[in-house]
Amino acid sequence: MVDRRSRHDVLVVGGGNAALCAAISARRAGASVLVLEGAPKFYRGGNTRHTRNMRCAHDTATGTLTGPYTEEEFWTDLTLVTKGNTDEALARFMIHESKSMLDWIAEQGVRFQPSLGGTLSLGRTNSFFLGGGRAMLNALYRTAEGLGVEVRYDAEVIDLAVDNGVFTAATVRSPAGTEEVRATTLVAAAGGFEANIEWLKAHWGAVAENFLIRGTRYNRGTVLRMLLDHGVAPVGDPTQCHAVAIDARAPKFDGGIITRLDCVVFGIVVNKHARRFYDEGEDIWPKRYAIWGRLVAAQPDQIAYILFDAKSLRLFMPSLFPPIQAPTLRELAGRLRLDPDALEATVDGFNAAVRPGHFDDKTLDDCRTEGLDPPKSHWARRLDTAPFYAYPVRPGITFTYLGTRVDHRARMLMTDGSAAENMFAAGEIMAGNILGQGYAAGIGMTIGGVFGRVAGREAAAHARH
């Protein structure tokens, strides 16, 4: 075992948005900080690498945001997507703290751009990173290292020394060997367990074999498992997660945001039996896109197909893979290996139920179906203009919601109700405190940024005293 006998004020485990915000916050508060990133440098940053934006409350329009987004509206949106399954006090604290995040994160070198278009409709609520998540990460790493934060890559934490809620050391495995790293405080920001297929199967069953993991293969839940085993109180349902419908042709891991499909609202979605199974036009896309992973997971063989026609081809941002195309529905069915008679019957039934209206993809329009089960509540237009297109989709898991319970100081809470003396958490590893279920675009980055900044600040304060 390597023995460097080094000791830091704050040890941050993880390398994404939450970890870097914690590291910068702690360092600016005067603490010595070590960041352990389990991935190689090229893959640093966890799921943050694939993000695009952050949802923060703000009182006025800015150079990149088209209008105000109040704390109360943010709370209403969060309540709707979680169906009230959230810690209200902690959620309201996060929302309030988010108001200062945009200025703070810009001070760390992150730049913003106006919202992307298409079905996102986020120009007023979400701030988009110039250059995307990787550019955002590069800015945070550059700032952290400039402040004197030490970063080690390929540094996997394989054990934690914790006694009655007090952290003393971490055992770290790297290409140089195994070593013990001691620190006064710990900030766990190492993500969820979505890349651990066996853990997913323990709660989802064999269907989890068909799940695709949108983000990093390094989020295996190792640190989370150790913390729970050491008496940290769990929060969240292990079957709840941020899961969206992504292109079924995506790789098993790390396909990222470019495999997500934003065209559901413009067509219909059918399963392997060519039957619709949910209202594709229930609400605007940012409030509903994250339900489709779970919906597809409940279908036979965890596969579904988004169908649309030539009228809609240019209305959404394209994904990495081109749509499957055919001049007729029957030929399209053949290319998808669907029963052509069944698909024609589904489309004919849908077309007959469509009622005329004024199509507007920016609002909850009046284009709907009548007498159809399930209905399509908005943006319903007949599929009648060749060529016809389809995307095959599978559940794409972004991150899991089972995590560590925390308080408003980002301190981990123990199963006996006490607060851990020197252990803090931020990001996906504690997101279940806010997200009991559901998701709205950009909230994951908000949770990571807010609680990362708080965790770093609090960890540094504890180390000083």
UniProtKB/TrEMBL annotation:
It holds the Pfam family FAD_binding_2. This is FAD-dependent tricarballylate dehydrogenase TcuA. InterPro entries: CobZ, FAD-dep_OxRdtase_2_FAD-bd, FAD-oxidoreductase_2, FAD/NAD-bd_sf, Succ_DH/fumarate_Rdtase_cat_sf. The lineage of its organism: Bacteria, Pseudomonadati, Pseudomonadota, Alphaproteobacteria, Rhodospirillales. It comes from Azospirillum oleiclasticum. Residues 9-434 form the FAD-dependent oxidoreductase 2 FAD-binding domain. It comes from the Bacteria. Gene3D superfamilies: FAD/NAD(P)-binding domain, Succinate dehydrogenase/fumarate reductase flavoprotein, catalytic domain. Its cofactor is FAD. Keywords: FAD, Flavoprotein, Oxidoreductase. SUPFAM superfamilies: FAD/NAD(P)-binding domain, Succinate dehydrogenase/fumarate reductase flavoprotein, catalytic domain.
